[in-house]
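Issue 218. Parser rejects a valid record. Input:
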Amino acid sequence: MSDAPEPRRAGAHSRRGFLVAGAAAAAVALGAPALLRLTRKGAPAIAGGFVDDDSAAGHALRDGTWRPGRAREIRTVPVAIVGGGIGGLSAGWRLDALGVRDWLLLELAPTAGGNARSGVNDTGRFPWGAHYLPLPGPEAGHVRALLRELGVLGDDGTWDERMLCHAPQERLWQHGQFHEGLEPLDALTAAERAQFTRLEALIGEFRATGAFAVPSAAGHARLMQGALPPRAAAVVRALDGMTARAWLDGHGLTSPALRWWVEYGLRDDYGCALDQAGAWAAVHYAAARPAGDEGPLTWPEGNDWIAQRLAARAGDRLVPNAPALRLERDGTGWRVHTPALEVRCQAVVWAAPLFVLPRVLPEVRLPVTLDYAPWVVATLLLRRPPQERGFPAAWDSVIYGSPSLGYVDAGHQGMGTRPDRRTWSWYHAVVGADGRAERQWLRTQRWEDWRDRIVADLARAHPDIAACVERIDVKVWGHAMARPLPGVLARTARLRDWQPAPGVWVGHADASSLSLFEEAQWHGGRAAEGAARRVG
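Output the parser choked on:
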């Protein structure tokens, strides 16, 4: 549309255009005290609190205190889908495409969407989780097909420019001002710039092998089927046995700015620090996608824009507030028990996190062990924009050296004159320890601790932020995503054809250890195909 801001094309400053969107060198120390007390005389009070994270239901299931009683309703369908995230919604979408339209999707929360869920306030919608989708390449055929159906991708191959991220896209606070893009290149020495160039060349070599793809199954298949030259295959496999830090060490990539940049990408996509992520995952982050594109796609509510359209297609086949408490064999089929509903079916698509499955079906023994990264997402309601210095306000703003991932402006995609009241989504991946220890630490943190930590973080770039913020609401994702620790290739191989039980298929991104939209959709669709074959 003529009055829409022109979407920025890929170039030297796009998140993935150069290589890997970088990352902060160190996560916030787990035991760190609150950083700022907002007690200055005359400073406006900041309201807010914790937002329901559905953990009460999950903990009741974990602890065995929420047991299925006598179901008030029994329904019989060919297929039951457990979990209403992108994997489960995609399973329903794929079943419809295959002609199996009689299914039920059981979702624990009041709304579907999983990690893509969003919220709304008086400024509009905003994301509580996943907030963008890189433009899918040719190997992400199902993603492209879905986006065609939703009108995002035209029949002529062009993208709806209203949904491409508008300019300016990204900026980085470094050395006292904002700079365009996320690359921390300001005031680097020639030797450090040479390391960025060397890293770009290494990633280019890996990209050319074809071993890295999105969805990852295509790259895995080429590797496993011997389609790569032996030397290239050996190098790719070697990545899987070391951490990202060890790989950088081995190549002499020691620049603090470069390591910050690489780790930012790892925390952003995977919830991992350099010492946690496998080197394979670090390379995959950049080598699995083209060196540059015109994306990403984004909406005020983030990826929930897609999720809610899939949920609308499901209609009354989507059952909210229906956690699966037990799977029980029923002859050659299954019974799925929820608090108020018993579903009898021939096939089950398990589209919830894998760690939950043994609690619902005790006979199952998972073939892999996964570590889950916790995240904290905060919504800031601003009464007015704060002071700026340097490059103008952008969709994504990041502070160099910060333990956070920065903030996204939910109103950036809007058209016309912007009001003073704004909504920002502030992201923080808790890294540095195993997920269990990180979650234990999270339980000790009060809302006031997060309020002070967030304001102190943003005050580096916006000194007057405390006077601008009206409200801060905090959402804790205890099991936000499975981490791609070293050993991804081995775990994925064990899960590739694994079925928990006859008639049960896994349709969740956990099967890849990569919490990406494309992975969730691929696994959801593949599980749906297995279920469709079973029901004929």
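Fixed in the parser; the record now loads. The radius of gyration is 23 Å.
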